[in-house]
């Protein structure tokens, strides 16, 4: 294994560098206005890469992200795996095959010229010490690469991706140090990709499952996810109030916007509207329960009538069989008597 064979920084290559202030401004603009949209084929490729290389181990896999920027969104539409090794005992010892990356990217570019290098991915599950050094390699191919951590074992119904940009943050001693900043990420798909995903999931879905049960399960899952997000916001505000962390103004503004969107529960019109809606919902539930009970009662009555009819038919059939056997025996006795009298 080569030690740090590929972690040469962009500054040592003689290439033009962004100064600290321009880097901070550009990345701050990206964080505020951009959203990283990860497409399903990328998630499938990452999971396949992990299953082939590091399944059942604590290792992580690394690859390149390809895509394009459209309407203020960074669409990650494709990816490919990279040969990557790191020493589990010494995190400073790692290897990334940059020549393989360049060769494979040129091949991808021949197929789709619109896709360009957007950044890189790993299976984390958290940011590591050497990630900034790997990030510097990808700055050779794009000014502001995005780093996406894909959780291959997501818990609950959460987005299995975390996206980061890097920028040079000023410090107290008038120097700058590069660090990661989180950026919003989501899962999106084109129409053709949605059709493909539906075909892949067709065998996993139970066709006998009722639509109502599925909708209720989806709503419960969404409510659990909402509760988890509210708990995260509460924990963040608690840490900020206790001076454990430095509050991010953008996050605070977003939380304030959320509070501003909440309805005023003391408004009489809103209270009346909620009451009417609750009463209508309860009335629908009551009527549905009554109808279901009446139908169940009718089914029970019909079942009892059918059972009684079947029992009577069975009894009549048995009596007919017994009557037929009695007549047959009587006829046999008569023939025997006539035969004896003739003798």
Nutshell version of this structure?
The chain is an alpha/beta fold and about 350 residues long.
Q: What is the beta-strand fraction?
A: 15-25%
User: Looking across the biggest beta sheet, what order are the strands in?
Assistant: 9-8-7-6-2-3-1-10
Q: Termini, distance in Å?
A: 119 Å
Q: Percent of residues in helical segments? A: 40-55%
Number of helices: 8
Q: Kindly state the mean pLDDT as a whole number? A: 82
CATH superfamily of the largest domain, by name, is: Cytidine Deaminase, domain 2
Family: Belongs to the peptidase M67A family.
Pfam families: JAB, MitMem_reg
Organism: Toxoplasma gondii
GO cellular component, one term: proteasome regulatory particle
Topology:
Layout: H1 20-33, E1 35-38, H2 40-53, E2 62-70, E3 73-82, E4 84-86, E5 94-96, H3 98-111, E6 116-122, H4 131-138, E7 146-150, E8 161-170, E9 176-183, E10 185-187, H5 191-201, H6 211-241, H7 249-261, H8 268-342
Parallel strand pairs: 1-3, 1-10, 6-7
Antiparallel strand pairs: 2-3, 2-6, 4-5, 7-8, 8-9
């Amino acid at each position: 294994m080569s030690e740090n064979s590929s972690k040469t920084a962009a500054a040592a290559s003689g290439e033009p560098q962004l100064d600290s202030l321009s880097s901070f401004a550009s990345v701050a603009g990206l964080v505020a206005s951009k959203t990283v949209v990860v497409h399903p084929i990328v998630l499938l490729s990452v999971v396949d890469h992990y299953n082939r290389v590091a399944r059942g181990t604590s290792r992580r896999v690394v690859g390149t992200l390809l895509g394009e920027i459209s309407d203020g969104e960074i669409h990650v539409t494709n990816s490919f795996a990279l040969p990557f090794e790191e020493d589990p005992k010494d995190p400073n010892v790692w290897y990334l095959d940059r020549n393989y990356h360049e060769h494979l990217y040129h091949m991808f570019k021949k197929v789709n010229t619109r896709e360009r290098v957007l950044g890189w991915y790993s299976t984390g599950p958290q940011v590591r010490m050497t990630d900034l050094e790997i990030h510097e390699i990808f700055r050779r191919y794009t000014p502001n690469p995005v780093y996406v951590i894909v959780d291959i074992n997501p818990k609950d119904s959460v987005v299995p991706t975390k996206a980061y940009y890097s920028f040079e943050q000023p410090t107290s001693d008038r120097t700058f140090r590069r660090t990661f900043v989180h950026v919003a990420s989501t899962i999106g798909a084109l129409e053709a990709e949605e059709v493909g995903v539906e075909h892949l999931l067709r065998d996993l879905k139970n066709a006998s499952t009722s639509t109502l049960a599925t909708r209720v399960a989806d709503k419960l899952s969404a409510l659990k996810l909402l509760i988890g997000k509210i708990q995260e916001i509460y924990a963040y505000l608690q840490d900020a109030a206790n001076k454990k962390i430095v509050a991010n103004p953008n996050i605070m503004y977003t939380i304030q916007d959320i509070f501003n969107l909440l309805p005023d529960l003391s408004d009489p019109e809103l209270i009346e509207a909620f009451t009417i809606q609750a009463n209508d919902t309860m009335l629908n539930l009551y009527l549905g329960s009554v109808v279901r009970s009446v139908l169940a009662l009718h089914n029970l009555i019909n079942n009892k009538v059918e059972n009684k009819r079947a029992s009577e038919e069975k009894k009549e059939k048995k009596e007919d069989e017994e009557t037929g056997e009695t007549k047959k025996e009587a006829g046999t006795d008569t023939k025997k008597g006539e035969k004896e009298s003739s003798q």
